Amino acid sequence: MGAGHVPEPLVDVLQDAVARVPVVAASRTGSGRLLAETYGFPGSERDLHRLGLLDAGDLAPLKARVLLALALWSAPDRPATESLVRERATPVAD
Question: What pLDDT band is residue 94 in, cutting at 50, 70 and 90?
């Protein structure tokens, strides 16, 4: 969860959620990026990206939630919503 992992039983729940609405993943540590390409087990950050979760970048979870709410409210469709979130929560390059 801090690095972008969830328990394996949550993978199916997240997959169902992503099928219905955009979902943003943020670190529970308060800020900082999730891992991107480190681990590949079920529930790892690679798995979550494969499912279609949007990365909150350096945004704290509450800020990511506000960003998603504003994007859902202002964008005309799902692709536009996801684009708004990606543009404003782009992970900072090392």
Answer: very low
Taking the C-alpha atoms of residue 41 and residue 47, their distance in angstroms, rounded to an integer, is 7
Does the pTM surpass 0.90? The reply is: no
Give the Cβ contact number of residue 41 at 10 Å. Answer: 10
* Other CB atoms within 10 A of residue 74 CB: 10
Q: How far apart are CA 4 and CA 7, in angstroms?
A: 10
Q: Is 52 in contact with 18 (CB distance < 8 Å)?
A: yes
For residue 58, which of 31, 29, 18 has the smallest C-alpha distance? 31
pLDDT band at 69, cuts 50/70/90? very high
CA–chain centroid gap for 12, Å, is 15
